[in-house]
Amino acid sequence: MGTLGDFMKELAVLMADADLQLPLKDETPWHHLFLQLKQAKGIEDRPAFLDNLVFDWDGPAPKCQELSEFLHALHWSAAVTAHNPTYEAIQIGTDVAERWRPSRQTAFHEWALEQAKAEFPARV
């Protein structure tokens, strides 16, 4: 869980397991969530990379360019799918989910998942 990519993939699998929708077209929930994670201090197992994320406030919501680029790279690389024509949400295949699932779910994973439940809609 040392990089943004590692943590985002692990959290995405946990969110999918919790039946949360993983939006692609509207990234706002991702940015809100990761800003909360960055601001969370003192939670056990908090990854250090969060301190290095930079959020821009030029629009109506915070946005982290690095987070946007990684989210879209997952789709471009075919690690996840987003169905045409709207590309609203991403889906994680079973084989990919097994590779991304954290080997050890930490206290920070659990805390981040609870925050995600407040930001992300349930899958329909």
Question: What attributes characterize this protein structure?
Answer:
124 residues, mainly alpha, two-stranded antiparallel ribbon, 5 helices, 2 strands
How would you describe this protein?
This protein is mostly helical and 124 residues long. Helix content is 47%, strand content 3%. It contains five helices and two strands; from the N terminus they run H-E-H-H-E-H-H. The chain has helices at residues 4-17, 28-39, 65-76, 94-100, 107-119, and strands at 22-23, 89-90. It has a two-stranded antiparallel sheet. Helix 1 packs across helix 5 and helix 2 (28-39) packs across helix 5. The mean pLDDT is 87.
- Largest sheet, strands/sense/barrel: 2 strands, antiparallel
Q: What overall form do the CA principal axes indicate?
A: globular
Average pLDDT reading = 87
Q: Output the structural class.
A: mainly alpha
Q: In sequence order, what are the helices and strands, one letter per element?
A: HEHHEHH
Question: Ranges with pLDDT <50 over ≥5 residues?
Answer: none
In short:
This protein has 124 residues and is mainly α. It has five helices and two strands, in the order αβααβαα.
SSE map:
Blueprint: H1 4-17, E1 22-23, H2 28-39, H3 65-76, E2 89-90, H4 94-100, H5 107-119
Antiparallel strand pairs: 1-2
Helix pairs in contact: 1-5, 2-5
